[in-house]
TrEMBL record:
Keywords, in A-Z order: Aminoacyl-tRNA synthetase, ATP-binding, Cytoplasm, Ligase, Nucleotide-binding, Protein biosynthesis
Documented EC number(s): 6.1.1.17
Localization per record: Cytoplasm
Protein's UniProt name: Glutamate--tRNA ligase
Residues the entry annotates as binding ATP: 255
Family under the similarity heading: Belongs to the class-I aminoacyl-tRNA synthetase family. Glutamate--tRNA ligase type 1 subfamily.
Length: 474
C-alpha cells in the first residue's frame, strides 16, 4: 500500500529496480542515486527491488555485487530489498483480475502462427507488432487443451500523454502499442506486468529511470488504469526519464570507454565513494556552477528540475581530478586503511596515516597513494627501478657516503633541519641540491619519484634512513 503522509497526501516513494545479471552499472548507480536523493530531499522513502525473474541470467554473485556497490556509495534503503521472483503469485493474481474484468484476454496463437505474422509484416515493411487476432474471439474457438498466453487489451484509439518530470509532455498514439503478453503460456508473469504490480504494491509514487524505459511507460499505464477501474487506488505514478550516459565521444557508454561497474571504479581505479557520488550527481544534474557538493548539500539541493534533457558525457579525466580533490580533503586515518589493504605484507597504518599529508598532495587515486607509500614498507636491499639504478653511479655512491655522515650528525630529525644540513653540504661541495637529492631519493625509495626527500627522511626515521643510504654508499 502507498505510504501516506500525516497531512493525508501521498508521501514520496521512489525505487531502484536493478536486474541482477551483472555488476552495478555506472548508469544504474546514477539512477539509484537520483532516486535516493529525490526521496531524501522530499522526506520520503527510498526502496530497492531486485528484478530477478530471469532465472537463467540472474545470479547470487550479481545480487551481492549490486548490494555491495550501493552500500559502498552510501545509499541505504528504508526497507529490506524486495525480490521480484518471490511475488510471481501476486503478479498472476492481478493478471487474472484483468482477464476476468475483460481488460485482458487469452491468446491461443501458436509460435508458428506468430512467426508467420512477423514474416508477413517484415515482407510488407510494416511495424512489428501483434495483430490482435485473439482480441475479440471467443476462447471456445481454440482447440481443446490448447496452451495460451494472456495479453493486455491496450487502448486502440486516441493517444496517451505523459507529463514527464524530465522530458516534459510526451504523447504516443495508442495504435502504436500492441496487446502485449502479461502472462506467458507457462503461467509466469512478464516484466511489464510484474514491474507495475510491484510499484503499486510498494507504494511507489515516482518512477525515476533511464529514458530507454520511456516507451515502457506507455505500455505500463494501461495496467494502472485498468486496475484502477477494477479496484480503485491504482493512481498513475509520476514519471521522470533521465537521459542516458554517453562516452566522451558522444556514443552510448560501453566497455571501450573504460570501466562500467561501480566495483571497478573502487577496486581497479582507486576512486573514493564520496568522489563517485559527487561525480554521478553532476552527471546530468546541475546547481549553478557548483562542482563539489557534499552528501548533505546534495540532499538539500536535489530536485528533478535540475536534470537536463540531453545525454551527459562521462569524462574519466574529470572524475580523476575530482577524486584527487576528495583525496586531499579525506581523513588521513581513513586513507591509510584503504591504502594498507592495497600493499602486500605487514603495514604500519599509523605510519601510513602520518605519511598521508605528503603522499596525497598530487595523488588522484588510492592506487597512486599506495604506490607513493611503497617505500615505507620496502625491505633492504631495496629493489631499484631502472631509472633509479642509473642515478647511482660511482660518483653518486661516493656522495651518498658523505651525505650519510653529515645527516648522522644531525640531532634534530625534522624536515627543516635535514633540509638545512643537506643544503649546507651542497654549498660546501659546490653542487646544486639536485645532485644530492636525486641519488638520495633513489637510495631511500628505489625510485625517482616520491614525496619531498626531506619528508621521506623523516617518515623513514633516522635509523632506517641512514641504513638505506649506507647500503647504497660507496
Amino acid at each position: 500500500m502507498a505510504s501516506k503522509s500525516e497531512s493525508g497526501g501521498s508521501a514520496v516513494v521512489t525505487r531502484f529496480a536493478p536486474s541482477p545479471t551483472g555488476f552495478l552499472h555506472i548508469g544504474g548507480a546514477r539512477t539509484a542515486l537520483f532516486n535516493w536523493l529525490y526521496a531524501r530531499h522530499h522526506g520520503g522513502r527510498a526502496l530497492l527491488r531486485i528484478e530477478d525473474t530471469d532465472k537463467k541470467r540472474s545470479t547470487q554473485e550479481a545480487i551481492d555485487a549490486i548490494l555491495d556497490g550501493l552500500d559502498w556509495l552510501g545509499l541505504e534503503y528504508d526497507d529490506p530489498p524486495i525480490f521480484q521472483s518471490d511475488r510471481a503469485e501476486r503478479h498472476a493474481e492481478v493478471a487474472h483480475k484483468l482477464l476476468d474484468a475483460g481488460h485482458a484476454y487469452k491468446c491461443f496463437a501458436t509460435p508458428e502462427e506468430l512467426e508467420a505474422m512477423r514474416a508477413e509484416q517484415r515482407a510488407n515493411k510494416q511495424p512489428m507488432r501483434y495483430d490482435g487476432r485473439w482480441r475479440d474471439r471467443d476462447p471456445s474457438e481454440a482447440p481443446a487443451g490448447a496452451s495460451f498466453t494472456v495479453r493486455l487489451k491496450t487502448p486502440q484509439d486516441g493517444q496517451t500523454t505523459i507529463h514527464d518530470e524530465v522530458q516534459g509532455q510526451v504523447s504516443v498514439r495508442n495504435e502504436e502499442i500492441d496487446d502485449y503478453i502479461i502472462l506467458r503460456a507457462d503461467g509466469t508473469p512478464t516484466y511489464m506486468l510484474a514491474a507495475v504490480v510491484d510499484d503499486h504494491d510498494m507504494g511507489v509514487t515516482h518512477v525515476i529511470r533511464g529514458d530507454d524505459h520511456l516507451n515502457n511507460a506507455f505500455r505500463q499505464l494501461p495496467i494502472y488504469r485498468a486496475m484502477d477501474q477494477i479496484e480503485g487506488d491504482w493512481p498513475d505514478p509520476t514519471y521522470a526519464h533521465i537521459p542516458l550516459i554517453h562516452g566522451s565521444d558522444g556514443a552510448k557508454l560501453s566497455k571501450r570507454h573504460g570501466a562500467l561497474g561501480v566495483d571497478a571504479y573502487r577496486d581497479e581505479m582507486g576512486v573514493l565513494s564520496d568522489a563517485l557520488f559527487n561525480y554521478l550527481l553532476r552527471l546530468g544534474w546541475g546547481h549553478g556552477d557548483r562542482e563539489e557538493i557534499t552528501r548533505a548539500e546534495a540532499i538539500e539541493l536535489f530536485d528533478l528540475s535540475g536534470v537536463g534533457k540531453s545525454p551527459s558525457r562521462f569524462d574519466i579525466k574529470k572524475l580523476e581530478n575530482l577524486n584527487g580533490h576528495y583525496i586531499r580533503e579525506a581523513d588521513d586515518a581513513m586513507l591509510a586503511e584503504l591504502v594498507a589493504a592495497q600493499i602486500d605484507g605487514e603495514v604500519d597504518t599509523a605510519l601510513l596515516a602520518k605519511a598521508m599529508p605528503v603522499l596525497k598532495t598530487r595523488a588522484k587515486s588510492t592506487h597512486e597513494l599506495a604506490e607513493g607509500a611503497a617505500f615505507l614498507v620496502a625491505k633492504r636491499p631495496l629493489a631499484m627501478t631502472e631509472k633509479a639504478a642509473k642515478l647511482l653511479d660511482d660518483e653518486s655512491r661516493a656522495r651518498l657516503s658523505v651525505i650519510s655522515e653529515a645527516l648522522a650528525r644531525e640531532n634534530d630529525w625534522t624536515s627543516e633541519a635535514l633540509e638545512a644540513t643537506t643544503k649546507s653540504l651542497a654549498e660546501e661541495l659546490e653542487l646544486g641540491l639536485g645532485k644530492l637529492a636525486q641519488p638520495m631519493r633513489a637510495a631511500l625509495t628505489g625510485t625517482t619519484t616520491s614525496p619531498g626527500i626531506f619528508d621521506v627522511l623523516v617518515l623513514l626515521g633516522r635509523e632506517e634512513a641512514l641504513a638505506r643510504l649506507d647500503a647504497q654508499a660507496a
